[in-house]
Automatic annotation (TrEMBL):
Coiled-coil parts of chain: none
Gene Ontology MF terms: cobalt-precorrin-8 methylmutase activity; precorrin-8X methylmutase activity
GO biological process: cobalamin biosynthetic process
Family the UniProt entry places it in: Belongs to the CobH/CbiC family.
Protein's name in the database: Cobalt-precorrin-8 methylmutase
Presence of the UniProt keyword Nuclease in the record: no
Short name of any one Pfam family annotated for the protein: CbiC
Domain Cobalamin biosynthesis precorrin-8X methylmutase CobH/CbiC: 15-212
Organism: hydrothermal vent metagenome
Length: 221
């Protein structure tokens, strides 16, 4: 395997990851996911040691294909928080010419959020739109339900057209509701975690799984 695009760069690391995936496969029991969907869910379970994500992860019917196409096209990844961008493997992103963006800590975003009495996450997504980063992008939300709601509203208003939404905000206020709203989108593919569970770690795991799927697809051609 080409080390440039291998997430684990040592044989020892690769063995640990392989063994971990094998344990997940052995212990998970039955699941209803298609093969490539399962690769995403399995990596999310691997990242959290939480088997409840078998069933909590929901996919739009076109989500995997949309993710593959977006990565192959060098899509932007627009994240609600910096943690997602930091967690993603830079060598692999660079190989696929995929760039990450986050704006939640920008001074203009903070100023505008205070002025309008809204959240930084909402203003960060608005800024991403003004920079023309949202169309054909992968929008990655692991923390802020308000960001996910803002994105779905703009999609429904025909203001933006992202390639894929990975919506997994965690929490007790509006987290579950924001994902329910996302599931009402029919023409924009999405991957979500049902209910309150979520987090940036899960979003990173899902994106890494999609990158691995694309890598495998290219090698099999």
């Amino acid at each position: 395997m080409n080390n440039v695009i291998t997430e684990q760069l040592t044989q020892a690391g690769q063995k640990i990851e392989h063994d971990s995936f094998s344990i997940v496969d052995q212990e998970v029991g039955a699941h209803s996911y298609q093969d490539e969907q399962w690769q995403v869910v399995r990596r999310m379970i691997h990242a959290t040691a939480d088997f409840e994500f078998n069933g909590l992860v929901k996919f739009h019917s076109d989500a995997i294909t949309a993710g593959i196409n977006a990565i192959n096209n060098g899509a932007n990844i627009v994240a609600d928080v910096e943690m997602i961008c930091v967690g993603l493997s830079k060598p692999r992103l660079n190989y696929f010419n995929v760039n990450t963006h986050h704006f939640i800590s920008d001074e203009d975003v903070i100023t505008q959020a205070k002025k309008l009495n809204t959240t930084r996450a909402v203003q960060a997504m608005k800024k991403a739109q003004t920079l023309n980063l949202l169309d054909d992008s992968i929008i990655a939300v692991g923390n802020a339900p308000t960001a996910l709601i803002e994105i779905t509203d703009r999609i429904k208003n025909h203001e933006i057209k992202p390639a894929l939404i990975i919506g997994m905000p965690v929490g007790f206020v509006s987290a579950a509701e924001s994902k329910e709203i996302t599931q009402t989108l029919t023409n924009t593919p999405w991957i979500i975690t049902h209910g309150r569970k979520g987090g940036s770690t899960l979003v990173v795991a899902a994106i890494h799984a999609l990158l691995a799927i694309v890598e495998s697809t290219r090698k099999n051609k």
